[in-house]
Each structure stands twice: as C-alpha cells, then as structure tokens.
Write a structure and sequence with these properties.
This protein is mainly alpha-helical and 176 residues long. The protein has 2 domains: 7-81, lambda repressor-like DNA-binding domains (434 Repressor (Amino-terminal Domain)); 102-175. The chain contains 9 helices and no strands. The radius of gyration is 23 Å and the shape is elongated. The model has no long low-confidence stretch (mean pLDDT 88).
Length: 176
C-alpha cells in the first residue's frame, strides 16, 4: 500500500499536472478570493511543507485545485503527522546523544533520561509502554533519589496516563 500524500506533494502534483507555475496558481487562488492579493510565496511554503495551510484555506484550496475539502484536510493531517514523527525520532536521537556524552552517567541522570524517554513514548501514543519504562526507571532508583526532580517528572507523566497504565505507575510511586 502506498503512503498517503502530504499536502505539499498533493498541491505541487496537481499544479504541475495542470502545467501551471506557482505564480499562475497563485493568480487562480487570488481570483477565487475575489481579487484579494495572494502571495505566491505562501504557495511555495505549502508545497515545500515549511508551513501547512490552516483550516481557513481548506475549502478555497479544494475549490482552486478541483478536489474535495476532505482530501485537502487528509493531506494536511498526513503532513502534520509526519512532522510529529520526525520530531519524535529527533527526540529519541537526542536522548541517545545525551547518554553518549557522559562516560558513566549517574544513577539520577540515567533515571531522568529514562523518564524523558517514557514521556516521548507517551507522546507517541503508547501509554502502556510509557508506564513500563517509567516504572523500570523508578524501581531502579535508590530510595535516596526518589524525591525532587525525578519524582516530579514521574508524577507529571502519571497525570497524563489513562486507566491501567496510570494506575500501575501510581502504585509504583506509592510503594516507595
């Protein structure tokens, strides 16, 4: 199965298939806006996905590109999800870099990095794995380190975890 197109590829593909330059497509959009100025640079930003069209543009883009509004919205959602995934992959790489920078990270440093990893996994949509990572980090800490920053980060994560994963982490926090 082919991956769905992001908004940039969709807009650029339709424009190029019609044989239009960005300036010509911008004129089409400008005409659809009742002659109100439309900067071709906006179109370039959308096609390169440096920016994504906001909802106020979706219906107009659908009209100007001969597509359904839902198709434009789906393409924007695909682009937004790819951006988030790219940021998460970058966050995981930064965590690995942080560990590599220190020859022998302290127990507390390892715990903080592990909890931050659990937060990233939670943001990625997997609360059960996030809870497991946080519990592992928490249990591995000597009791002298279970207050302060590590505790506040684990508690903050706990507040975002629904149902069973949240309950498991709350139990681990209460067990000391």
């Amino acid at each position: 199965m082919m991956a769905p197109e992001g908004i940039g590829a969709l807009l650029r593909g339709i424009r190029e298939a019609a044989g239009l330059t960005r300036e010509e497509q911008a004129s089409v959009i400008q005409a659809a806006r009742g002659g109100k100025w439309f900067d071709p640079e906006n179109l370039k930003r959308w096609e390169t996905e440096r920016r994504l069209p906001t909802p106020m543009w979706h219906a107009l883009l659908a009209e100007c590109y001969g597509r359904q509004t839902e198709e434009i919205v789906r393409a924007v959602v695909v682009s937004r999800r790819r951006r988030r995934l790219h940021r998460l992959v970058g966050a995981y790489a930064e965590q690995e870099s942080a560990l590599a920078l220190t020859m022998a990270p302290s127990v507390m440093t390892r715990a903080l990095i592990a909890v931050d990893g659990a937060v990233c996994v939670r943001a990625d949509g997997d609360p059960t794995v996030a809870a497991g990572l946080a519990i592992g980090a928490w249990i591995g800490l000597p009791s002298a380190y279970r207050d302060g920053l590590v505790r506040s980060r684990v508690e903050a994560l706990c507040r975002t975890l629904p149902g069973r994963p949240g309950n498991m982490l709350r139990d681990a926090l209460a067990s000391r």
